[in-house]
Amino acid sequence: MLVGKTKRSVTRRKAKTLILGIGNPILGDDRVGHLLVQELCSYISDPEIELKETSLAGLNLSELLSGFDSAIVIDAIQSGGAPGEVHCLQPRDFHIEKVNQYDQHSTGLLQAIEIGKALGWPMPENITIVAIEAGDVTSFSDDLTPDVAKAIPVALKIILDLLGSPRKQEVI
Amino acid sequence: MAKKITINPITRLEGHGKIEIFLDDKGNVEDAYFQVVELRGFERFCLGRPVEEMPRITPNICGVCPTPHNMASTKAVDDVYSVEPTPAAKLVRQLHYNAFMVEDHYIHFFFLSAPDFVVGADADPAVRNILGLIDKVGLEIGGKVIEVRRRCRDIIRLIASKPPHPEGGLPGGVPRGITEEERVWIKETADYTVDFAQFALKLFKDVVVADKKHLDLVLNDAYKLNTYYMGLVDSDNRVNFYEGKLRVVDPMGKEYTLFDPSEYIDHIGEWVEPWTYIRLTHLKKIGWNGLNDDAGTSLYRVGPLARLNAADGMSTPLAQKEYEAMFDALGGRPSHHTLAFHWARLIEALQAAEDMQRIANDPLLTSKDIRNMNLKLKQKGVGCVEAARGTLIHHYETDERGLLTKANLIVATQHNAAPICLSVKKAAEGFVKGPEVKEGMLNMVEMAFRAYDPCLACATHALPGAMPLKVTIRDKSGAIIRTLSRS
């Protein structure tokens, strides 16, 4: 007999919007999501907006997203565009094929949302994905490649425009 | 016409890992290789940094198994500074580590393995996943998995600030101790986890062991590999995740060698092949004898089943009973049945849960003596733990200021890389027949791969989400003649 009561681990949160920077912080351009969230901290003071960085995979992503009304996810992407190109996307823009296993290693953002819903968690209704085309994501490094570094202010402005909330300062 | 089948099961960084199966002119399997894309410059990234930064850096190598890197790194830094953690600090570390083993083993089992058995290995791939599993067993069991994981992560969060990427890791100790109030809820979690671990094992035995079709699959020769096995053991040769000596048993189960992890270079050889970036490990004193499990093999395996094979028993009573039951059912120790990794995984989770109980009941846990500051830089250190996926070794060297001059890591997937190739080849030989490669056949091959839960040190989180599995069939010239996908 199991002791204790099973309870849902994820509940509604105070903040309504999550800004989530995803990436491996020591793998070159893959850290661009982290850097953008760090930059955003200087511009956003709205208590209804929560900023987070993560390098998590799998079910962790479902947990991070749950409980928010909306989310802006910032990540590096390699979709064939020029490094530094910034895309503003919706989940429906991705052609996601059903995989045979939702496993730790291959659970991406959209699968994470689906899993969260299946578990009965409150997942964000509106998700926007700000994706920056990466140059190098296979070399361990603290630095972005030059083209991706140049994309930081561009992506920053896009995210702040998406939020439309009062800013502490303007993007330079 | 000879063909090449490529199974590419990895996420966004396409090509990070793939399996290639080569068919001969008759459509039978000729060879199989497990390949990864090289992540460059890790050692260069680390060189010149203070060695005590490594426990914070190394968990970022992987989005899936960061705690073992944190712990192996912390132990290597202990060794670099010639310091042992205080008894209380060691308990806190072991508590942290057991909590991770529990959550990682269950995520693997319920997300990765259980769909094959509960939903069915030949079921429609659209439902052969965690969602299909929840449909089959009910949301309540899914909720229990999430709950046990949440509770274990609360322990990790308490000790290491944030799961799963731990912060901290101090030579000679831990950054914080445990209060009596915390000990009380940790004990509740340990009790809950032991109950859940027994429930999970009962589920496995009901669904897999009691079902002839499933048990036959586990015992199928296509999933059998006669190798050596390696794992950490305590002084009584029982399974230990955190410390001990590395014991290797031969394919008959006889002890081949027992050594301190710091001597790994004398025992573990690394072999370079042109078709992979992974340096293929093998038993150095036997020498590289290629990818085979013949009598002269020098290949060994690590991970849950390997640990149980390499040990004389478990270190906790309930897990010991399960250990005996498993080997009885599998025909004795060692067991060479790769799919039994799943069973062993659940037995290990039970040991980890019982050990959490032991620690939670130890009055020493709340001691404030959590740091040994008697540090003496000796400029070289090796740390070793049993990661969920197998033995993990960190080896650092520094200059006289403690700045890194060398960093070498041997991860579980490296130990298992050559056996994974062989397992995939055997499974492909057993299940892939003729030119028509069907979905069900490929899943049977992937099951051999998945049993190891290989971890490719890659960023696994990212956009646009999971890559679908792709099978590319090529002719001898390399031209694609057919592509299968799992849409």
Task: Give a brief description.
The complex is a heterodimer of chains A (172) and B (487). Chain A is 26% helix and 19% strand.
Structure keywords:
heterodimer; A: 172 residues; alpha/beta; Rossmann fold; 5-stranded mixed β-sheet; 26% helix; globular; disordered N terminus; B: 487 residues; alpha+beta; 5-stranded antiparallel β-sheet; 4-stranded mixed β-sheet; 14 strands; 42% helix; disordered C terminus
Indicate the multimeric state.
Answer: heterodimer
Largest sheet features of chain A: 5 strands, mixed
Beginning-to-end CA distance, first to last residue of chain B = 27 Å
Based on CA atoms alone, the radius of gyration of chain B comes out at 22 Å
* CATH fold group of chain A: Rossmann fold
Distance between the termini of chain A: 60 Å
SSE string of chain B, helices as H and strands as E: EEEHHHHHHHHEEEHEEEHHHEEEHHEE
The biggest sheet of chain B, with number of strands, parallel, antiparallel or mixed sense and barrel status, is: 5 strands, antiparallel
